[in-house]
Design brief:
heterodimer, A: mainly alpha, MetI-like fold, two-stranded antiparallel sheet, 14 helices, 1% strand, globular, B: alpha/beta, 3-stranded antiparallel sheet, 42% helix
């Protein structure tokens, strides 16, 4: 037995990250250790997998299976093939709710992200009471969205509504407006409330990203005479890209999954004009007005998930294409600069 | 230890022992779980001593009295049954209850909105075997089906009251507008004339229409149509004689509500107005009229502590039509969960709720319109709070016949959404209703052809 064989299993002595032992005995010990490690890792992974399978994969699989069934909660489900999907593709109300979802998601992201970025840049400039502002901006994020819906109903209502009161007090309005009374104003209200609830957390994300950018870069740019806007465009935005990609991705997914705000603030009204995908399909699971159509509701849920996945993939693909274009542009610029220097 | 194992190294032997124990324990645990899940429900006569029974109540006119009675009963019943009460907002109660029942977290005893549907889903205990003969006798014919609480063979809910549908109106506002408070409008045209007078002379709004309420059309549009034809079943104007949905019947209702909306006679924000907010405004004297149900007496008088002088009259009919009946609804049905923790104890709580003590207290307080025959006979109508008398069952009040809507597989807009869209917009009324009617009739035909519904339940 060599010294190496007797040596403890430390880094560099046959452990991962170190050189593998060359002697047969050492190799044997190493293989045994590796098997035990793999077994332990497998066991831990398997235990963690159980709740994931039970509470995530099985329900999802159940919904997918149900989407091919006719089932009203009574009696046995019957196989109907793609019938529910065919119904969904012909259901104009469903596609209206898909459009509403995209409008709500697009509207809130377009307003929310620039606002969050602007606030993050301001907070990053070490203003007075920065931590106070951060807390205030973050507060809406910890308020239950259902509570928010109810509160904003009282703010937006036409009779004794707070918003109407303020606007009339300022002389902006001469008569009360029913903000939730027409499709466009109700949708605008939903977008603004959604922005209010989401900009705080995104501000924090951007702020974290901004604080990772070295100050030296800005100082060098300043010495070179770059203006604030040029620094923002040439330094802040490019260096914030990884954070921005995550923030946009999360915002897209959360916005497309909207449910509780719409349910509590408009309940899809007026007359279904603000129904989003998940409030619409909820009716088929739980409403007495339509009867229980578990199969159809499940088909809608599957389609909704596919839509969210497709939108997310399109964004990721566009984002990567932009990045590659940007890298390609940088390389070309460098080559041009090198040529000029020569 | 088995003989073969004794030759194994100690560690391997220990491991095999653990494996053997695990292998034994898993099927045993599974067996226990399965047997626990499949255990038969308790039968009448099983011990109820000290059992805990969960009860869900809706916020509303009867809540406080029912809660107080049950708390007292819980403290004093000889079996020591403990009652745990949870109150729920009335607007979201049906959805919350369904969700709880579907996820196995439903209460043991509960107010049961749409009990026929819940029974179809298998959530409700069949009560004939469980309920005492005395209680069954007290409710008489109402527990004999088919009707919304009973099949031909059994019953699954006890309705504690009946809900007549009336036009509620504010007599003070009528007087202020120069209208005769003792001669309320009986046609939609007369309502519009009254609205014109009220808009001209008062600060109030003429009419309350809570379009955000999920059941608004069932009680604010359907009765206007249903009362003119005894063949129509509720909701959605299904004609039992022609075996078709007839949505053209809603044309005068849509035109009426649209005109009220356009002339700003409706209480503002109708599309985002729920029933509770609308009733609060009526109780506060801000609304002159709305189509109401008997349950609104307690809500307006007690929940909103109204001081207005108000009354109720028959639901107005479209101009040129005659009322042939007044549909009403069996109200306050209570059921027992088919999966109640202790069924016998739950039934005892149900018997306490349906018993004469609480029912008489509620009726005498003007909170319910009792179906218990002994309670109904004991009420002194003259002494009741106003306008209780206006909602008491009268000649012409008949129990609604159930339409097949809840059994159909419908996609797209529901009839109430179509009507709401037409009321607040300018779309062509006839064509929109025709499109919805065609969809409903196609769904009916498909359901009958596929055996999804038994047509004999819905046609003559």
């Amino acid at each position: 037995m060599t010294v190496l064989d007797r040596a403890p299993l430390t880094r560099g002595a046959g452990t991962p990250g170190g050189a593998e032992p060359k002697s047969p005995a050492g190799r044997h010990r190493f293989d045994g250790w590796r098997r035990r490690e793999r077994r332990l890792a497998g066991t831990i992974g398997f235990v963690a997998l159980i709740p994931f399978v039970l509470f995530a994969l099985v329900p999802v699989a159940y919904v997918v299976v149900l989407s091919f069934m006719r089932y009203n909660g009574v009696g046995d489900p019957t196989w109907v093939g793609i019938h529910n999907y065919a119904l969904a593709f012909a259901d104009s109300s469903w596609w209206s709710s898909v459009t509403n979802t995209l409008v709500l998601a697009g509207g809130s992201i377009i307003i929310e992200l620039p606002l969050a970025l602007l606030l993050a840049v301001l907070l990053n400039r070490a203003l007075r009471w920065t931590s106070g502002f951060r807390t205030v901006f973050f507060l809406p994020h910890i308020v239950s969205i259902a509570v928010m819906g109810v509160v904003f109903f009282f703010i937006l209502r036409p009779v004794d509504g707070i918003l109407n009161g303020i606007l009339r007090g300022m002389g902006v309005l001469s008569a009360d407006v029913d903000w939730l009374g027409s499709g466009p104003t109700a949708m605008l209200s939903l977008i603004l409330v959604s922005v209010w609830s989401g900009f705080g957390i995104n501000t924090i994300f951007f702020l974290v990203g901004l604080q990772t950018i070295p100050h030296d870069v800005y100082e060098s740019a300043s010495l070179d005479g770059a203006s604030g806007w040029q620094q923002f465009r040439a330094i802040t935005l490019p260096m914030l890209t990884p954070v921005m990609r995550i923030v946009v991705m999360l915002s897209i997914v959360f916005s497309l999954r909207s449910f509780d705000l719409v349910k509590t603030l408009t309940n899809g009204g007026p007359a279904g004009q603000t129904d989003v995908m998940f409030t619409y399909l909820f009716e088929y699971f739980f409403s007495l007005q339509r009867g229980s159509q578990y199969g159809y509701a499940s088909a809608l849920a599957v389609i909704a998930s596919v839509i969210i996945a497709v939108v997310s993939i399109i964004y990721l693909a566009m984002s990567r294409a932009n990045e590659q274009r940007s890298d390609f542009g940088d390389a070309r610029r460098r080559r041009r600069e090198e040529r000029n220097a020569r | 230890m088995c003989p073969a194992a004794s030759h194994l190294p100690r560690r391997e032997s220990r491991m095999r022992g653990r494996l053997t124990r695990t292998a034994t324990a898993i099927p045993l645990a599974t067996l226990l779980l399965v047997t626990a899940g499949c255990a038969p429900s308790e039968k009448p006569g099983e011990s109820v001593e000290g059992a805990e029974v969960t009860v869900w109540l809706q916020n509303g006119g009867t809540f406080e009295a029912t809660q107080a009675y049950l708390e007292d009963w819980s403290a004093n019943n000889p079996d020591g049954i403990q009652v745990k009460i949870t109150a729920h907002a009335s607007d979201s109660y049906a959805e919350t209850l369904q969700l709880a029942l579907r996820t196995g977290k439903g209460p043991d005893v509960f107010e049961s909105p749409g009990p026929d549907k819940l029974n179809d889903a298998g959530y409700l205990l069949q009560l004939k075997e469980w309920l005492s003969a005395e209680t069954q006798e007290a409710f008489g014919e109402v527990l004999v089906g088919p009707n919304p609480v009973a099949t031909a063979d059994d019953f699954y809910a006890i309705p504690l009251s009946t809900n007549t549908i009336r036009l509620a109106y504010n007599k003070d506002l009528f007087t202020e507008a120069g209208l005769d408070p003792e001669a309320p409008p009986s046609t939609l045209g007369e309502v519009k004339e009254a609205c014109a007078a009220i808009a001209d002379t008062t600060d109030a709004y003429c009419y309350g229409l809570p379009l955000k309420w999920t059941a608004w059309a069932n009680w604010q549009a359907d009765p206007i149509v249903q009362n003119t034809d005894a063949d129509l079943s509720h909701p959605a104007a299904f004609n039992r004689a022609t075996e078709r949905f007839e949505f053209d019947r809603f044309v005068p209702v849509v035109e009426f509500y649209r005109e009220l909306a356009q002339k700003e006679w409706l209480y503002p924000g109708a599309t985002s107005l729920d029933n509770d907010t609308m009733r609060a405004a009526f109780a506060n004297g801000e609304i002159a009229m709305f189509v109401s149900a008997a349950w609104d007496v307690a809500t307006v008088n007690d929940n909103y502590a109204s001081t207005i002088d108000w009354a109720a009259a028959p639901v107005p009919v479209p101009d040129g039509e005659q009322s042939v009946r007044a549909i009403m609804n069996i109200g306050k049905p209570y059921s027992v969960n088919a999966d109640a923790g202790n069924t016998a104890a739950a039934v005892k709580v149900l018997e306490a709720i349906a018993g004469p003590d609480l029912q008489e207290e509620l009726a005498q307080a003007g909170s319910t319109f009792p179906l218990r025959l002994d309670t109904a006979a004991s009420i002194d109508i003259e002494s009741m709070v106003k306008p209780y008398e206006d909602y008491v069952i009268a000649d012409g009040d008949v129990q609604r016949q159930t339409s097949p809507v809840q059994s159909l597989e419908l996609q797209g807009e529901t009839y109430d959404q179509v009507i709401a869209r037409l009321v607040i917009g300018n779309d062509d009324i006839a064509s929109a209703l025709k499109e919805a009617e065609d969809r409903y009739n196609a769904a009916w035909k498909s359901a009958v052809d596929s055996g999804l519904v038994d047509p004999t339940q819905f046609v003559y």
